[in-house]
Design a protein that fits this description.
Length: about 450
């Protein structure tokens, strides 16, 4: 197979790496992996070709005669890239636009969950803050989460510790404070839901429209600072795949498949929008209540993907192709992964000023030294080409992966890779994976 990975970040670098011989052995039947548009760091190991529109990707897939297109970012899915590729007869891993609404519309996601009987927080969907008055009145003394309906590049969700804060946030998000919705069209409709307590978990399910297999579970760290302080980010690090030692046993993952993933697939089928791709199930785990759905994403998460794919030794291409074609998925994947998985960890290196105002242009020094370490891999995200080498070109610059027999080993190796790097003003957390360390 010749495979095209669409996107330009660390997630796409990890996908290309796992799909290719760069994973340490040549996967069966994979001839070449190319990336579009990629970035200067990814281009060190893969052929990167320009693509800015849906038509560009379709034309590129045709001219390169690719056998499979793997779509990374949600924005491409929302633009209908998979619809266009399907129309051109090119197999594509990722949902069509109608099913991708699970992520591009929070209101749609909650409606699907309610119709499918999936456990999730109580909620109300509003276009005016007055419509949430009864919801707020019945929840005095409790917290709430305010979510812009549309895609906001990870910035459209605000966790409020009390109802007064949530009421003010809702009015601001809808534009009732300064006359303009904070996120434009994306926040003309807003979802307000109960704030759930517990521990978050991300589960990845590969779906062929009718069935699903669990690829793994991971946990990321959203806030910029140690101890989960400071503003939220796209993710500052992650660990996975989590297992029984971390309280994530096969019974829990089987439950997620049975009570969350499969009912959602059936509901989308009923609505004429079958889901083929990866379903990212964002859960809140509470010992008393059990798991509840926080969100669905319709693509691989970032940076959880880098941690999972660095640690899981599996031929990914046949799995993604089966999803794209709607053919049978392996029933023994869980056992295979258990036998061929390490522990994975990723530490994100972010630019100076991230997440509010990241500064670009700083030289990136030491990446070759980090990659030379055993069981360490640099996945390139916000990386550009400067006059004398690679430079910072985005908020999250690198995801430094480590793997080992234990999470302690994986984290130690990831941080050893971080220690090789010299990037002026760069920042990273020093407590990634603290909850899974044994020392």
């Amino acid at each position: 197979m010749k495979i095209l990975v669409v996107g330009n970040g660390g997630r796409e670098h990890a996908l290309a790496w796992r799909l290719s011989a760069g994973a340490g052995r040549a996967p069966a039947g994979v001839h070449e992996v190319i990336v579009a548009p990629g970035n200067a760091g990814i281009a060190r190991g893969f052929r990167c070709l320009p693509a800015a529109t849906v038509d560009d990707v379709v034309a590129l897939a045709r001219s390169e005669a690719v056998d499979l297109v793997v779509v990374g970012p949600e924005a491409w899915l929302d633009k209908g890239l998979v619809d266009a590729l399907d129309g051109a007869g090119i197999p594509a891993f990722g949902p069509r636009k109608a099913a991708a609404r699970l992520e591009s519309s929070k209101a749609f996601m909650k409606d699907v969950a309610r119709s499918a009987g999936v456990p999730t927080a109580d909620f109300v969907v509003v276009e005016k803050s007055a419509a949430a008055a009864d919801f707020f009145a019945s929840r005095r003394g409790r917290g709430a989460v305010v979510k812009a309906d549309g895609l906001c590049a990870g910035k459209g969700v605000v966790v409020c510790s009390d109802i007064d804060e949530a009421r003010d946030e809702l009015a601001a998000m809808l534009g009732e404070v300064d006359g303009a919705p904070r996120f434009g069209e994306a926040s003309r409709v807003v979802v307000v839901e109960d704030l759930l307590g517990g521990e978050e978990l991300s589960v990845f399910a590969l779906c062929n429209g009718d069935d699903a297999v669990i690829l793994g579970a991971a946990r990321d760290h959203k806030r910029i600072g140690d101890g989960d302080t400071g503003p939220n980010t796209g993710g500052m690090g992650a660990v996975g795949p989590l297992g029984a030692a971390q309280g994530i046993d096969d019974a829990l993952l089987d439950d997620v498949r049975a009570r969350f993933v499969l009912p959602t697939l059936r509901e989308l089928q009923r609505r004429g929008a079958p889901f083929r791709g990866v379903l990212f199930v964002g859960l809140m785990l509470d010992p008393a209540r059990g798991p509840s759905l926080l969100e669905y994403n319709v693509r691989f998460g970032d940076p959880e993907t880098e941690a999972l794919l660095f640690a899981i030794d599996v031929d990914l291409a046949p799995l993604l192709l089966a999803c794209a074609r709607g053919t049978a998925l392996p029933v023994d994947l869980t056992a295979t992964l258990r036998a061929h998985s390490s522990c994975g960890a990723v530490v994100v290196i972010a630019a100076e000023g991230y997440p509010l105002a990241p500064e670009k242009g700083a030289p990136i020094v030491g990446m070759m030294a980090a990659d030379a370490l055993a069981d360490v891999q640099c996945f390139c995200a916000g990386v550009g080409q400067g006059a004398f080498g690679l430079v910072v070109d985005g908020g999250r610059v690198l995801a430094i992966g480590g793997r080992g027999a234990t999470f302690d080993e994986a984290l130690d190796r990831a941080y050893a890779g971080v220690a090789c790097l010299q990037i002026e003003g760069a920042q990273h957390r020093t407590d990634i994976g603290k909850s899974v360390r044994r020392r």
